[in-house]
Amino acid sequence: MTTHANGLAVDVRGLRKQYGDVTAVDGIDLGIRRGEVFGLLGPNGAGKSTTVEILQGNRDRDAGEVSVLGSDPAHGTRAWRSRVGIVWQDESAPAELTVRETVRHFARYYPRPRDPEEVIGLVGLEAKAGSRIKALSGGQRRRLDVALGVIGGPELLLLDEPTTGFDPAARRQFWDLIRKLSAEGTTIVLTTHYLEEAEALADRLAIIAQGQVVAEGEPAGLRERYGTGATVEWTDPDGTPRAERTDTPTRTVGTLMARFDGEIPGLRVRRPTLEDVYLRLTGQEDAR
Amino acid sequence: MTTTAVRPRADALAERLPGVWGIGLQRGALELRQFFRQRDQVVFTFAFPVVFLFLFASIFRDDVRNAGITASQLYVPAMMAAGIMSTSFQSLGISIAIERDEKVLRRLRGTPMPPASYFLGKVWLVLVTGLLETAILLLVGTAFYDIDLPTDAGRWFDFAWIFVLGLTACALLGIAISSVPKTGKSATSVVVLPFLVLQFISGVYIAIDTIPDWMLNIGALFPLKWMCQGLRGVFLPESAQVLEQAGGWEFGRIALVLGAWCVGGLLLCLLTFRWKNRRDG
Predict the structure, then answer these.
(1) Rounded to an integer, what distance in angstroms lies between the CA atom of residue B97 and that of residue B31?
(2) N or C: fewer beta carbons within 10 Å in chain A?
(3) Strands, E, within chain B: which ranges?
(4) Residue of chain A with shortest Cα separation from B9
């Protein structure tokens, strides 16, 4: 019960997981507070999914201490499972049942379920409530997955790459849904490799690369801490675009003003974005 | 949030968790609904043994020497036993392998559904479909192939326990074999081959007195041979006992073997059942 005392929904220390010779998770520490939206960000294969699967109680770990809502997920009881909602990365629901039948049925597993009709409305599937699941589009199925993840009224919702394959409009709708759930007080942990998603949703995030947390904090804070310097861009008189990376952009602009004697063509001063920070921290800077 | 504020809530949740039997019943209803909505599956599941009964019982219809029955009559209990095994062993073996591959099982495992309720749901599905299958075959058998319904209650009692024990043993073996196929796609081949072989060496397709003894002895290790034998004992006249390997119906031994398979099958399931595919670790 220590995690309740320190207000953490998820408390992970020194987590390790090896698949054969490959170390998927290499000593991760995480402290996720009650009520926050926490993003786990990282490239494919960084260890995000393995970490979340261990939190779900769906995968064994090799080392480390894990506490989720005060219990070790490796020994999750039925009562514990009823407090944790899961949205998996790749789901399949019974194709021959309707949305309403499925949501109602899953509600019966829980001691204090939410109202099935309300949950169907929450994920925006009212119009499809009577349709067989096999007739749903990919995005609609994903929303059903979320409905089944929240039907038990979880205190903690774990989502693994929930918006992979969504079109931009569906992604925005999904973000609204996450914000609604968060406003209701649900603690939310989601993995993603979409930067804008992490920036839009997460109160705090951890960037994971090669099985380790390389940075952790609020999105804006991360940008400030790791995004030092700026890039000054302009166009030379012969038409060549130029760019200079500098810690003193004001001085660089001053020098340019003297040289151009008036307007500087194509002038732009760019502070690093979260994406620049992310790419640098995950060692993918060259990808830009 | 303090410890004292949280602990009572967790305990209260544990007390309010829905019961194993109740959820099992709900799952049974769900399984049946899913089953009957796949119309092609329904038609083929129930038609398969009927078509085979028609083919075999129409091709082989001569009197069986010294036994006082026709070959057609022999095929009715044989197909009933095969029907029971197909609705339990074959359908569970394939469907659970597919559910595991498509991560239906993993998702259920992530909810507070009690694992036993999942199996209870399968039991309801198998019981209803098995009863229907048996009733259809019995109807065809009495209408076209000179099978008489038993008149004394003792025979009906034998029928009931052979049905229940045979169905249970085959269902448990079906659950166990569902862990063998690596993917849902390979499940049908993996499950159907042993079922077909057993049908040949247990006296379903080939009359029991024409199968070589060594084959019959292998068949006798599994439930199907004993289900066939028991159902012959229920629905054929006493004169047909001469065809049996032991020269009698051997109801006691049948109960023993089927009962042993129920216990052994349960142990096998408990030891080997997995909620995830091998790839998923």
Answers:
(1) 15
(2) C
(3) 63-64, 69-70
(4) A79
Domains of chain A by residue range: 225-287
> Counting Cβ atoms within 10 Å, is residue A165 exposed (0-12), middle (13-18) or buried (19+)?
exposed
B127 is in which domain, residue-wise? Answer: 18-280
CB B83 within 8 A of CB B49: yes
At A172, which amino acid appears?
Answer: R
Given this model, what pLDDT does residue A288 score? 47
Identify which of A1, A83, A93 has the shortest CB distance to residue B3.
A1
Residue-wise pLDDT for B106-118, tens only, equals: 899 899 999 889 9
pLDDT band at B15 (very low <50, low <70, confident <90, very high): low
Of A19, A60, A91, the CB nearest to B103: A91
Rounded-to-integer distance, Cα A251 and Cα A261, Å? 15
ipTM: 0.83
Across the interface, which of B17, B38, B281 has its CB nearest the CB of A111? B17
Task: Report pTM.
Answer: 0.84
CA A245 from centroid of its chain's CA atoms: 30
What pLDDT digit, counting tens, does each position of B169-217 carry?
999 999 999 999 888 889 999 999 999 999 999 989 988 888 898 999 9
Separation of alpha carbons B114 and B22, rounded Å:
11
Residue A75 structure tokens: 């020994």
Q: Which two tokens stand for residue A138?
A: 């990919």
**Has residue B1 been placed in a domain?**
no
Chain centroid to CA A278 = 13
CB contact under 8 A, A96 and B23: no
> Is B155 in the A-facing interface, judged by CB distances under 8 Å?
no
How many Cβ atoms from other residues are within 10 Å of residue B205's Cβ?
18
Length of chain B: 281
Q: To 10 degrees, the CA torsion angle through B216, B220, B225, B230? A: 120
Q: Would you say residue B4 lies in a domain?
A: no
Structural domain includes residue B8 = no
Alpha helices in chain A (DSSP H): 2-5, 48-56, 78-81, 99-107, 116-122, 138-150, 168-183, 195-201, 219-226, 249-260, 274-281
Q: For position B6, what pLDDT does the model report?
A: 47
Q: How far is A57 from chain B (nearest CA, A)?
A: 8
Q: A214 with A231: CB under 8 angstroms?
A: no
How far apart CA A70 and CA A2 sit, in angstroms, is 7
Q: Is residue B13 part of a domain?
A: no
C-alpha distance from residue A31 to each of A3, A43, A90, A92, B58 (Å): 9, 21, 26, 31, 73
Share of chain B above pLDDT 70, in %: 93
